[in-house]
Prior knowledge:
This protein has helices at residues 24-32, 36-44, 91-96, 113-118, 146-165, 173-187, 196-202, 204-210, 253-256, 264-278, 324-337, 351-357, 369-381, 416-425, 459-470; strands at 8-10, 17-22, 53-57, 74-78, 100-104, 136-140, 190-194, 220-226, 233-238, 240-244, 284-294, 306-308, 314-316, 342-347, 363-366, 387-388, 406-407, 434-438, 442-443, 453-454. It is of the alpha/beta class. It has two domains: 4-144, Leucine Aminopeptidase, subunit E, domain 1 (3-Layer(aba) Sandwich); 151-470, 3-Layer(aba) Sandwich (Aminopeptidase). Helix 8 (204-210) runs antiparallel to helix 11, helix 11 (324-337) packs parallel to helix 14 and helix 13 (369-381) packs across helix 15 (459-470). Keywords: Aminopeptidase, Hydrolase, Manganese, Protease.
Amino acid sequence: MTDFKALIEADTxxxxxxxxxxxxxxxxxxxxxxxxxxxxIVKAYRFVANPDSYLLLPPVGGKSDDKLVADDFSVVxxxxxxxKLDAWSLAKLGGSLPEGNYRLQDASAKGTLFxxxxxxxxxxxxxxxxxxxxPSVLLVNDAIGQRDEAVRQAEATAxxxxxxxxxxxxxxxxxxxxxxxxLAAQHGAELKVTRGDTxxxxxxxxxxxxxxxxxxxxxxxxxxxxxxxxxxxxAIVGKGVTFDSGGLSMKxxxxxxxxxxxxxxxxxxxxxxxxxxxxxxxxxxHLLVPAVENSIDGHALRPGDILHSRKGLTVEITNTxxxxxxxxxxxxxxxxxEEPEMIIDFATLTGAARVALGPxxxxxxxxxxxxxxxxxxxxxxxxxxxWQMPLWSGYDAMLNSEIADCVNSxxxxxxxxxxxxxxxxxxxxxxxxxxxxxxxxxxxxAKPGRPKGGEALGLRASWRYLQGRFGQ
Length: 472
């Protein structure tokens, strides 16, 4: 894991290269005030302060005797709006500048440190990457404690990315258990793992989905509890389908290519739980991860089968590729039995959400207006946007079954992410505010600080919301 703490240091006046932040609107005024040598360099490189652009400038001595000193330079960087810096404003710089110490000359670092940090993280488990010269270190005045918060967010985001990028052979249900077990040991939490006959008896939908992989990758429910019993209870649930073949409703080869990421919901939930514990948020945390592989053998779930659930509802299986909502259903039921103040779940649940909102916006469903508004505002504040979708009861009938209480997947293809969320709502407790994130957990094309591959979407928004609601 990248040592993010080493990438930010307290500014005590040590030697550092200055970074000047500009935007297109301020560029001309800045340029007019520069000596002729600098103006010539800027013109030669056609730098105009476009977003995510930067230029290294040599030092300039007297007007008549300019002197260049090797490795002694400053940086001028373009952003969208220098008066409205966000989490990604420094991402291009953090991931590109040469090794050394840097100081922002005339712009506050508040809110920008996360991008500087995460842009220097790379997934290198299976491939030797080209050597970097070394870390780019930002010097900051940490009077408001922004350094620790930025490191916490970067570590959690890197955790999600690395878990999602890891192939299923090295990220099965057992590995998810190992990760949660390690977190529990680090933070003095309790871990309970339910497997085998007990799983089948008490969590029949989790067992039903995972039973085809029983011999190689046995299904299990991971439960972590942490915090004082007299603190407000919160539950965080994550879909942990470590590989999704689609079951007997098999995916195409192209559809299976990214299915190592189907545990992206679990990665988000685990990372959010990690942040809660590391920050010692005054809550009683209940983390639930149903960990399964949706595989195929003679025991595989079949279309037309009827599954019982922990809640007592029966579910007719109309599509074995709609398995994530099944395992979440049992986990949400258990979460509600603890009577928490709120529940948040994360899942790579539907392609329909991606069709509706694309890869950057996770669909958020919430049955509590105040919680929904708080999450949206938190996402805007953290440059981690999300979009609220409707839990519209008018589509409930799409989940009707003639022989069971409901089907697991509506026919016809309409409102796919909404009907999936409505299915989950049947298992979420009515009296507890609940938010469901249908997140992609993947970035198909790179942006500064955001490489192609596993991605955390909605994680920092959720964390900021929890901080605002329960933080001291």
